[in-house]
Write a structure and sequence with these properties.
The complex is a heterodimer of chains A (423) and B (138). Chain A is mainly α and 423 residues long. Chain A has 4 helices and no strands. Helix content of chain B is 10%, strand content 44%. Chain B starts with a strand and ends with a helix. The chains are: A mainly alpha (423), B mainly beta (138).
Chain lengths: 423, 138
């Protein structure tokens, strides 16, 4: 049963007053002299008052001391022990105060525990954040480096594109030259075809003429053969004449011999015989000359025949050569026509190619622009990355600060002892 | 005036007096003479009589592949014989004062009696009796 301290005091007073009254009633009946009666009553009343006051204030003081000690511990940060007052039949405000202190201690313990946990977590998180931000800074550095490389690559790319553009322009110029050359080739092929037609015509005419000449030469050959035969006949006649001359010579010799044998009578005959012999000799000589001439004619005729055969062979060869020339001219015409067609198509194709090259140049210019934009964008990215790196470093710094703050907080709550159940 | 019939034996020029010649005939072919001595070309028909022909070139030991178709026929009074020569020449007048004696002792087998200088050409005059005598010996 709870009784307030004030009530306790009041009750004490009442008990003291009551005991005085009771004593005043009791004491006279005890047989105690009257003179002592007053003293005993007062003494008993004081004794009762002292006993009650002692008992009462002892309990009260002890509770206050307990509370004071608990408050002292609390001020020192020891939250491990709860305030326990001696058990009392009649608890009073001290018990309430102890309960309040205990609840406050409980709340403080919760708070400190929560702060400690949170600070620990914050410290861990700050460390993690710091590590992460360092990693991110490193990554950001790498990204920055890579972006620089990309930037350099973009510059090289721009250069290459410029060079490609220049090359394509040169190519376009070359293609135009090809067009011009192909047109010239067309004209030249046309000229060639015309010339070849003229040449073929000439070769055909020449072939015809050569055929005529060949016929004439063959006729000449036949005439020479018949001439040779006639010369051979002359030779035979000359042989006959030679035989006659030899016989005449023999007859003249014999006539001379006969005339010599006839002596003086035969002298005139001998002269005639000598004349005949001379005639026969000169006949024989002339016949010999004719034979020599015939031999010469025969040899020359054979030479002429041989050379004519050679000529005919050569003319045949010439004719076949001319035939092949005609064929060759025909082939040249064919080839020139083909060349013309091909050169025309080359010219057309080259024109298309030139147009295509122009488009390629445009496309490459476009590419160049894109590459320039890319380079600019890359530089922007590089700048952003650098900013990001700076932010990251700042963040790392902040995380370190946070970590320090968490440490400080932990340090601040460290002096609170929470006891075994909460530590 | 005597006349000389000239003829060639190989490269040498010989001469024979007309008086020692009967006739010159053409011999197209020779008939074979059985058991004839060496140096005979064969036989020909001379006016119906068989006439042996001597290869004079070979007989005198002179080299010569050519042979005239005409044959010198000796008079029957001397010997019935034909002489085959390399080539029959012509008939020249013999000038006695231009005959040079030939030394017999130097070349015994030459059958040359004298040498006739006809305008610088040396003509060996054939010693026919010695030839015939030599033939007789065989």
């Amino acid at each position: 049963m709870r009784i307030d301290i004030s009530y306790k005091f009041i009750m004490g007073f009442i008990i003291v007053v009551g005991s005085i009254v009771v004593l005043n009633l009791v004491v006279p009946q005890l047989g105690i002299p009257e003179a002592w009666q007053q003293l005993v009553s007062i003494g008993c009343a004081i004794l009762v008052g002292l006993l009650l006051g002692w008992a009462f204030s002892k309990a009260f003081t002890a509770n206050i001391r307990h509370l004071s000690a608990a408050a002292e511990r609390l001020s020192e940060g020891d939250l491990s022990k709860a305030v326990r007052l001696r058990g009392s039949t009649f608890p009073d405000e001290t018990a309430d105060l102890a309960g309040s202190l205990n609840r406050m201690m409980e709340s403080l313990r919760d708070l400190v525990g929560t702060i400690r946990n949170s600070a620990n977590k914050v410290a861990e998180a700050a460390q993690g954040l710091s590590a992460t931000s360092q990693e991110m800074t490193a990554s950001s550095h790498e990204v920055s480096h890579t972006v620089e490389q990309i930037s350099r690559g973009a510059e090289t790319q721009a250069e290459m594109v410029e060079r490609s553009s220049r090359l394509i322009r040169e190519m376009a110029v070359s293609v135009e030259l090809v067009v011009a050359a192909a047109k010239k080739v067309v004209l030249a092929a046309n000229d060639t075809a015309q010339t070849a037609q003229g040449g073929g015509e000439t070769a055909r005419v020449t072939t015809e003429k050569m055929k005529g000449i060949l016929v004439e030469v063959e006729g000449n050959g036949r005439q020479i053969v018949s001439f040779g035969l006639q010369v051979q006949k002359i030779g035979k006649i000359v042989e006959v004449i030679t035989g006659i001359a030899q016989k005449t010579n023999l007859l003249a010799l014999n006539a001379t011999i006969e005339a010599a044998r006839a002596g003086e009578y035969g002298r005139g005959f001998a002269v005639v015989a000598e004349e005949i012999r001379k005639l026969a000799d000169s006949t024989s000589e002339s016949a010999g000359e004719i034979t020599g001439l015939i031999e010469t004619i025969r040899e020359q005729g054979q030479q002429v025949q041989a050379s004519m055969k050679q000529t005919m062979v050569e003319m045949d060869a010439g004719r076949s050569a001319l035939d092949s020339t005609v064929t060759a001219f025909a082939e040249i015409i064919q080839t020139a026509t083909n060349t013309q067609a091909k050169a025309t198509s080359i010219a057309e194709l080259s024109q298309k190619q030139a147009q295509g090259a122009g488009k390629v140049v445009e496309a490459i210019d476009e590419i160049s622009r894109v590459v320039s934009d890319n380079a600019a964008a890359t530089q922007e990215v590089s700048a952003s990355t650098q900013q990001q790196t700076a932010s990251m470093e700042e963040m790392a710094h902040s995380a370190q600060g946070l970590s320090a703050l968490a440490d400080q907080l932990l340090e601040a709550v460290r002096r609170f002892q929470l006891g075994n159940e909460r530590s | 005036m005597d006349l000389v019939l000239t003829f060639r034996l190989g490269e040498e020029v010989y001469g024979l007096e007309i008086a020692q010649v009967q006739e010159i005939v053409e011999a197209t072919g020779f008939d074979y003479i059985p058991l004839a001595p060496a140096g005979f070309l064969g036989a020909i028909n001379f006016h119906g009589a068989i006439l042996p022909v001597l290869d004079l070139t070979g007989y005198l030991g002179l080299a010569g592949t050519q042979r005239d178709q005409r044959v010198i026929v000796l008079p029957p009074s001397t010997c019935a014989l034909g002489l085959g020569v390399t080539l029959i020449g012509r008939i020249l007048p013999l000038e006695r004062d231009r005959l040079l004696p030939f030394r017999q002792e130097r070349e015994t087998d030459a059958f040359i009696r004298e040498v006739f200088n006809h305008n610088g050409d040396m003509i060996n005059m054939l010693d026919l009796p010695r030839v015939l005598a030599s033939l007789e010996k065989q």
